[in-house]
Records
---
Amino acid sequence: MNNFDEKKRIQEFSTIQRELLPQINLENKFQVEEIRYIAGVDLAYWDVDEAKYGTCCIVIIDYFTKDVVEKVYSYGEILVPYIPGFLAFRELPLVIEAVEKLTLQPDLYIFDGNGYLHDRHMGIATHASFLLNKPTIGVAKSYLKIQDVDFMMPENKEGAYTDIVINNEVYGRTLRTTQNVKPIFVSCGNWIDLDTSTEIVMNCINNESRLPIPVRLADLETHKIRKKLIER
């Protein structure tokens, strides 16, 4: 992609993000006790000759038992290049294709990526909410610095957190889900508040990972599906 094409795409993508921004609502659109099924979403990539391919895996768990109740995946060629700040435009086509294969309707989606914790508050978890029409949470393994603002490390104890505040606004949260393990970065996607997002994420942690169960399982599934597709 040449510089002109990239500039044009960035302008188009920025316009879409600005149009969606006023529709973000960081309040719960649901009663927490109504949550039953939670979906984890992740993607993995590989190259074939000069083409880039990806697979999106969605794993749904029962929020109470933590049992897996459904798994689906989609795959295909990735037609949008990676442009920082515009990951949703690259990944959402495969996400939606996978969602359309689900027989169960999740009450909430957790994405391996950011939501409101984004330079324009439009990480993939937030952007996806408008297509899924469901509450969403973003959970990232690392922090992409916004406006030169770094995060403060939380205490070394389970459930400790510090908020990431930029221009007097809370963008997201650095959360230590497990003692002696690196923190993760939690942000609202849409139609949910940050405290509820944190509560749900912590309720989906076990001793196998610092990531919430549905996201960790979706991540494992992407590696398995990618290997299968490459071998095919």
Note: The chain has a mean pLDDT of 96.
---
Amino acid sequence: MVVQVVEVSPRDGLQNEPEILSTASKIELIRRCVEAGARRVEAVSFVRADRVPQMADAEAVMAAVPRRGDVSYIGLVLNRRGLDRALAAGVDEVNCVVVATETFSQRNQGASVDAMLGAWTDIAKAAHAAGVRASVTVAAAFGCPFEGDVSPATVGDLARRLVEGEPDEIALADTIGVGVPTQVRALVSAVTAAAPGVPLRAHFHDTRNTAVANALAAVEAGVTVLDASVGGIGGCPFAPAATGNVATEDLTYALHRSGHPTGLDPTKVIETAAWIGDQLGKDRLPGALGRAGWFPADPR
């Protein structure tokens, strides 16, 4: 089974890094990801610059990304103002985030869960009217830094309400990296039952070294789209101790060796991870494959 990897390093990867890259460097990162085979790229977010200064140049980035018919660029939006900016910038998809718990929703977005559900429905309908795909991410679906465990029933109920916006895709996010494979299977089952026919995506953080195992469990449960970030950079700036996303190169290795092609070029992904590490001034990134290498030696 082919698995699509959505490259999120330009947005979710960079938003939690203290180093603010130049617009030119962000565009080069995106170009390298596309050259490595990424066909869906979460490129930018249209949020308040005072809250996430790393994303302040979203319009400038979108104005210069390499445009190709086989590449789709995703912009994160949280309200209609963000959507208007995204549509004007020429995104191919928008993604909205609804948090699974009330406390984290208030801390992360300054709004209640109910308010964000309403915002999502409004965003989705307007995006669809403009001919743009709209997906929604359930953040903290596996656990909350403030409220603890999140039950599959809670996530299932939330997914049932998200269906009102007719999502093109629902993503389940382990925002703080607490999930394990048994949870993955339970959540996928709950959301599949609550939102039948809606494609699922999964987004894992490797805070506790479970991300690759969780990703494989998601694929075994029927998920065919996974988020990843070159080098394993990133995280959520509003979640304490939420370290980086699963590394694209590590996930690619696990998927390819498990019989799930991704269309990514492992060598170019590893090279891109090394490049972004240099740009961020990091001698060592979380991703392991850049140090250990592919096995067998030639990934082609």
Note: The mean pLDDT is 95.
